[in-house]
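User: I'm putting together a small comparison set for a docking exercise, and I want a reference complex before I start. The sequence is below, and the ligand is iron/sulfur cluster. Could you produce the 3D structure with the ligand included, as structure tokens?
Assistant: Of course. I'll restate your input first, then give the structure tokens for the complex.
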Amino acid sequence: MRAWEGLSPDTLEIAGGFGFYVHVPFCRTRCDYCAFATWTDREDLIDRYVDALCLEIDRTRSDGRWRTPETVFFGGGTPSLLSVDQVSRVLDHAEPAATAEITLECNPESTDVRLLSGISRAGVNRISLGVQSTKAHVLKGLGRTAHEGSVERALRAIGTAQIANYNVDLLFGGAGESPDDFVESLIEVLGFDPQPAHVSAYALTIESGTPLARAPERHPDDDALAVRYELADEVLGSHGYRWYEISNWAKPGAECRHNLSCWLGGECRGVGCSAHSHWSGERSANIFLIDRYVEAVLSGADATARRERLDASERSEELVSLVLRTRLGVPSSLVPESLVDDGLMEYSGDRATLTLRGRLLANEVANRLVIPPQVTTGSAREPRPSRGGLEAVQASLRSGTNQRIDTDA
Ligand code: SF4
């Protein structure tokens, strides 16, 4: 069986595969809370930007830092501003596996039947629709532009293109949003036709340098965010969605393979300005500014702005912090009983997972885990060099039986 077939939160297996991320840094308008690398006045650059993406893919493939992608994710920005031909060109260069999950993020404002039918024929088989809220006054409080009827049009397009596997993004905590507004928004989303297979619900965060950061009267209160989160879990849970990462709920089998692969330590290659990659223990990030990225790639220069190599201990710590946020949980050997006594984690066989309260305090929980600086696996007590920590944790996650993780410290 392939790693992801029949995947459900009960049978999570690590992808061990290769994910490919494409950053699309164009938006029609900028939302007040947004700190992503995206531009509202550079649509004239789209053609050259896609040329640069294709060139970067070709170079990455020829330098050997590439495998056949098992997942592809077009994120942004607003990838639905690309044309069908542009999406097809990128996919033609990347040559994903025939069974790959291929996701494209869509803004309802720029999503129609022609686009979705075309990209579906090109291979896109998963859509992530940025709805954020169905309430006009909440969108206004978030500083997000939305036109009446755009969500309905996008849903018709998803239905016509027969893309059954789609996600809705929600954002809670905007100024003027009441708990009832949030619940009504959730219920409306779950009543969409077709119904989403996956819902992401994120708490609004204040990013420095954004218009929202400069308006403290619009900042959410931590207690209010916690209440919204608990409501999300309750409503989604009662409609058959199960959480599998702190901000993500899915019908069984509809978990996002691309994101899971990243959270479980899979390798990922990102192309485009500001895109991050993780390959063979090295992390890298591309040039942030769109003009500089295009100029560099088209003139034959390297698009990478910085690289770092984590040692085994740092990689173990990073992976455990990511995996902690998933329903898969971490080996219980890493979890002090005090976390269970405090109601933040619960043991489940050889694993331990976050409780609902623990999900609200995940950063605090991560700081209290006992992550060994050097890790070995199985009965062999010798420390493995460099990749030991990651491999031990990954093997434990893959087996579902918590392969023993010992520390030499
Ligand atoms: S649509 Fe998304 S990427 Fe674009 S400005 Fe709004 S939040 Fe940022």
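Residues 1-15, 374-409 have pLDDT under 50 and may be disordered. The chain has two domains: 18-263, 312-407.
User: Thanks, that's exactly what I needed.
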